[in-house]
Amino acid sequence: MRPFATALAVAVLLAAPCAYAPTFAADDLTVTIKDHKFTPSEIRIPANKRLSIVVINNDPTPEEFESLPMKIEKVIPGNSKALVRFGPIAPGRYEFIGEFNQATAKGVMIAE
Q: What is the band of 3 on the pLDDT scale with cuts at 50, 70, 90?
């Protein structure tokens, strides 16, 4: 009986990190960071709706996805991705930047 209890405990411990990992739905918006630039750099989103965006950082260095008007700040480690939730936001134009590379990492979300 003891080997079974040990195996069960190990299985639970190994599965625990997966329970807290962000999930990415097919309808999530996606933006990619490559060479310290966002692609796409312009994203149209529905206004007055809670949204999620998947930020994929294909650079080896971390980048901070930031939008002061939308009150978003999220550091994405190099070669990884993260789910960023925000909104609802009013119709308008909302700039976002990669704070660690502000000269090149720029974009805008247009809420309609």
A: low
What is the homologous superfamily of the domain 25-111 according to CATH? Cupredoxins -  blue copper proteins (2.60.40.420)
- CA proximity to 54, closest of 69, 70, 65, 67: 65
Distance CA 96, CA 87 (A): 14
pLDDT tens digits, 5-51: 555 454 544 454 444 445 545 457 999 999 999 999 999 999 999 99
Could you give the CA distance from residue 112 to residue 109 in angstroms, rounded to a whole number? Answer: 10
CA distance 59 to 88: 29
Report domain extents, the chain.
25-111
Helix, strand or coil, per DSSP, at residue 77: coil
